[in-house]
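During the reporting period the student researcher (J.K.) took over the structure-prediction task from the postdoctoral fellow and processed the backlog of single-chain submissions. One of the processed entries is reproduced below for the supervisory committee.
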Amino acid sequence: EFVDIAGLVKGASEGEGLGNQFLAHIRQTGAIALVLRCFENPDIIHVNGTVNPAHDLDVIQLELILADLATTEKALERYRRGARLGGEAAESAAYTEKIFSLLSEGKPASLAPAATPGEQIVHRELSLLSAKPQLIVLNVSESEAGLASGDLIAKHGLPCNPDQTVVLCAQLEAELALLEPAERREYLESYSLTEAGLTRFIQSAYRLLSLITFFTAGPQEVRAWTVRKDAPAPEAAGVIHTDFIKHFIRAETIAYTDFVADGGESGAQAAGHLRVEGKDYIVKDGDILHFRVSC
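J.K. obtained the following structure tokens:
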């Protein structure tokens, strides 16, 4: 699920723009996609009056860190009071102090990984914005839609990892949405593209969150389900219904490529491509699964 959140402005951590409302929306997400404008258009106003994606990224990162500083400072006071009694509160205070020092240096909380079970609990309780995984989305002009992310990162002086950066042109994507599938292919080819930016965006988000897709297929419908990478079969069954975890017996499994090549379940079974897997089976991306559960 993707949530469109209004743009962040300088001073958001102190209430500017949507302020706390904006930050509260981000706090509910599993990851953040930072959309940076990289195109010039006099008809579209930029909030800062000039297009500078590197500056925009700095503003966003700083506001996230400032908001986390306020959160961590309050938590630190609470943990320190409890630390006088020793025990888990002392460990919580020590870990929070480490994060607070990091944030005070202008560094994100993601650089302070939670190692022990106690630290992991504190990490979840704090729900820090700068600790969330980030995906950088470069919104470019149509003339730059076919450029590689590394080239655009270098051009704009962005401190980004190309593997966590997606290039797309919002104008081109809007036009693609109005075309028929055959026309879309021709349109993409005219920009030296093999797939839409939206497709690459979704795939990158799945990789960032370590998610995969499995399918259930029957006579009436085929459905796609999302589960974390390396999840065992009972956990995948639980995505469909939580009771399936407890009552799991086995999973009848067909690889996606076999399912398509063999013309469906009956063809895959006849070709010997249908497998019976138990509780320890690790679900693969694209698996077609039929779960057997007890009543």
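The committee noted the following: The two ends are 31 Å apart (CA to CA).
J.K. will present the remaining backlog at the next meeting.
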